[in-house]
Amino acid sequence: MTKNQYVVFSLGEEEYGINILAVSEINRLKEIEITKVPKAPEYIEGIINLRGDVVPVVNLRKKFNIGMKDLDKETRIIVVKINFQNVGILVDKVGHVAVFEEHELSAPPEEIVIDSNYIAGVGKKDEGMVFLLDIDKVLGGKIS
């Protein structure tokens, strides 16, 4: 049943989801120091030391061109595995795990503001909609 379970997080007023199978862990920002990387793409926030592994961190606000927000106590780094490498994604807040039945999932509308290739679908619940991300496409299989 795990294929329709998603870690739901916020960027501004919108909610997004990543398939729970792609998520390794979720970390509070206050426990981690992000080191800037010279000449990295703008959306690369930097790198972190995660138990001895160097992990790049992608700021999804920058990647999606949403506009900046100060980091605060709600800010989280969701660690996902892409091509056998851990990558952190910086998000405003992690909410919950949502389970979507097949009838609650639909294809993304073609007129989506961010690149529709990033959106695998839309999950619909009474409390609202969640953009379900194809994290491989968001990160392009590579981060630089």
From TrEMBL:
One GO term of the biological process aspect: signal transduction
Domain CheW-like: 3-144
GO cellular component, as recorded: cytosol
SUPFAM superfamilies: CheW-like
The protein's name: Purine-binding chemotaxis protein CheW
